[in-house]
Design a protein that fits this description.
alpha+beta, 11 helices, five-stranded antiparallel beta sheet, rod-shaped, disordered C terminus, single chain
């Protein structure tokens, strides 16, 4: 048991209550403080743990014994007093054990939650450093996480990305911003096909041509909890080397020589 104001509060309050009950009993008949002792033991256990609660239990039993000793005209105990002391000891000890155990489990849960949150933050920061666009969807196809690369590829504002948009809203955003290098009459069927692939968990990769000349390889992975992980891997250099040489100047003009910084400026401006 660590000493501090939390650990001392329970025993100190128990001792003060016992002394007050004994003093009051000298002037007028006072009820048994046993129920109050049990409440104080529960308070000590929830505040500082099992050790403080057991110290409070010991003080409560001693205080109750002194209270019953002075409560009668003739010193001594009758069997009813001993029975009440035994019941108080068992009840207070049980209360100390239960509250101490509950507090420890709660602290362990908080500690695990902090470690889990710290790990999630480190993983999120790491995924923001890669050039592969990553989107995590829940079972209802709402985005739980969208990394920085995806936001840059599709000029997705942080406000919209952090609002847990559904996957169809991400597709419509790409359509509205002209991110896809597709004719207007093919966009609807393209979006419908991607929605169906995500819904069924189809892991067949496809290449997506962007209007700025980049090519992303889209892949969907079904997760055990019913969610989906979507990855957008840049494969421009792997695909463009088979294109006609006459298209080289066009693709160079469409690229961002600052390494996606232009896309970030456009996203901020939007």
């Amino acid at each position: 048991m660590r000493f501090g104001w939390r650990a001392v509060s329970g025993p100190a309050l128990t001792a003060a209550t016992a002394l007050l009950a004994i003093l009051l009993d000298r002037f007028l008949p006072a009820p048994s403080p046993a129920p109050l002792f049990v409440c104080i033991v529960a308070f000590a256990g929830s505040l500082s743990g099992f050790g403080s609660a057991m110290v409070s239990t010991t003080i409560a039993v001693i205080g109750a014994a002194l209270f019953f000793l002075n409560h009668r005209a003739a010193p001594g105990y009758v069997p009813a007093d001993l029975l009440r002391l035994g019941l108080l000891a068992m009840t207070a000890a049980g209360t100390a054990a239960i509250t101490g155990l509950m507090r420890q489990r709660l602290l362990d849960a908080f500690a695990w939650e902090r470690r889990h949150h710290a790990t999630a933050e480190r993983l999120s920061a790491a995924l923001d450093q890669v050039d592969i666009g990553i989107v995590l969807l829940d079972a209802e196809t709402r985005a739980e996480f969208i990394n920085r690369a995806f936001r840059d590829y599709f000029s997705l504002p942080d406000e919209k990305a952090d609002s847990r948009p559904p996957f169809v809203a991400l597709m419509y955003h790409g359509r509205d911003t002209g991110a896809f290098k597709l004719p207007q009459d093919e966009l609807s069927s393209f979006i419908a096909a991607r929605m169906e692939a995500v819904r069924t968990g189809d892991s067949t990769p496809i290449n997506i041509d962007l209007a700025d000349g980049q090519v992303l390889r889209f892949s969907c992975t079904a997760l055990p909890d019913g969610g989906r992980m979507l990855s957008y891997t840049p494969v421009t250099d792997l695909v463009r080397h088979t294109d006609a040489p006459s298209w080289a100047d066009y693709y160079r003009s469409r690229r961002d020589p600052a390494g996606r910084k232009l896309t970030r400026y456009l996203r901020v401006a939007e």
